[in-house]
Design goal:
TerB-like, 4-stranded antiparallel beta sheet, alpha+beta, PH-domain like, elongated, 14 helices
């Protein structure tokens, strides 16, 4: 869309060139009969408004003076709300203008570092931030099988401890739906942020111990929509499957390899104790891996009997290569669970890696993928 000739000339003269984006409102700035246009320059928003039979008036909103900007869904229409210390503007548009308004909002957000609010109306708008979108996509993934399971809700609560952000993600998804949420991630998040979202979606839907066809199709769609390389996606699946596949501790007859599983849990407990600050949340993570039983007490007996050195000396005899990879992946996750990877935890990881004789390529892949997945701090960038 373009401004009418006389307004286009005025805009170019007053604001240094043609407008990059234009949207036509359904009524003038102060309501009633008439029309209005919103046009964007690199550093400002300009509203041209005209009541029926009246003259055109222009209102300039420098980006740096705009305190808040919201895009509000309104049935098949949308609203733009702009507020500065001097003036508030609320204009209604056809849904066809939403892409142009999205680009205007993105330009304002990039110039100011502030978040665009989105929602159905001003009372229910939520901040449109990378963290909101992260939580919204995970909320969408939870609904794939028609019900939210406790394991998935626990995963999201552990990944994002900000309960308000989790709720805002749910609100955004409920207001905008899955398709728009996915499209907004494509438009607003950078490649590292998109990768982090995808990895966490895969990890979350594996949290209940199964990966359905519908869930696989959903994650593959995310990969395609966000243009994530197939090789990167395959690595995410490979590493997270390795981490979650505790079935490697079962033999061909379905019997538990008791010694190997005991060593697995004892090594995890040793990691919890490595920094001298064992936390209840870390112990809860260990317990969550054992369905219907508490492995911590038995693991403590192993450590009390032979100590960490004795455990590490036995691990190569207890574990197969697949079990070793599963253990190492879970040790990495446990060490990162509190948001900090301390020097003693790093040293313990190095000892286990050397003890298990993990190939450098394998160990590095496990660490890199799991670190990038856990690094939700990337969502605060951009």
């Amino acid at each position: 869309m373009h401004l009418p000739g006389n307004l286009a000339e005025e805009f170019a003269r007053e604001h240094g060139g043609p407008s990059a984006e234009v949207a036509r409102a359904l009524y003038p700035l102060d309501g009633g009969m008439g029309e209005a246009y919103v046009a964007a320059a690199p550093d400002r928003l300009v509203v041209f408004s005209k009541k029926l039979s009246g003259p055109w008036r222009s209102y300039v909103f420098p980006f740096t003076e705009v305190e808040s900007l919201a895009l509000l869904a309104d049935g098949s229409f949308c609203q733009l709300e702009v507020a500065s210390a001097r003036r508030r503007a609320l204009l209604k548009f056809s849904g066809w203008d939403r892409p142009a308004l999205d680009r205007i909002a993105t330009a304002w957000a990039a110039a100011t570092g502030r978040s665009v609010r989105v929602g159905r109306d001003a009372a229910h708008a939520v901040p449109l931030t990378p963290l909101t979108l992260f939580c919204a996509v995970l909320q969408a993934a939870m609904q794939l099988d028609g019900e939210r399971c406790a394991a998935e809700e626990l995963f999201l609560a552990q990944a994002i401890t900000d309960a308000q952000a989790v709720q805002e993600g749910l609100s955004y998804w409920e207001q905008n739906g899955t398709d728009e949420t996915i499209a907004t991630v494509r438009e607003r998040l950078n490649a590292d942020q998109q990768w982090c979202v995808l990895a966490n979606v895969v990890a979350m839907i594996m949290a209940d111990g199964r990966l359905t066809t519908e869930e696989q199709e959903f994650t593959e769609n995310l990969r395609a929509e966000w243009h994530i390389a197939q090789a990167d996606y395959d690595q995410i699946l490979q590493v997270l499957y390795c981490k979650n596949n505790l079935a490697v501790f079962m033999d061909a007859e379905g019997q538990v390899a008791a010694g190997a599983l005991e060593g697995f849990y004892a090594a995890l407990l040793a990691m919890v104790q490595a920094d001298g600050q064992p936390g209840e949340s870390e112990l809860a993570m260990i317990r969550s891996l054992a369905a219907g039983s508490d492995p911590v007490e038995a693991a403590q007996r192993v450590l009390d009997t032979g100590g960490v050195d004795g455990l590490l000396a036995r691990l190569p005899e207890l574990l197969t290569p697949e079990q070793s990879c599963c253990l190492y992946a879970n040790l990495i996750v446990l060490a990162m669970s509190d948001g900090a990877l301390r020097s003693r935890e790093q040293a313990f990881l190095a000892r286990v890696r050397e003890t298990l004789r993990l190939a450098e390529e394998t160990a590095d892949l496990l660490y890199t993928v799991l670190f990038r997945k856990h690094n939700v701090a990337v969502l605060s960038a951009g």
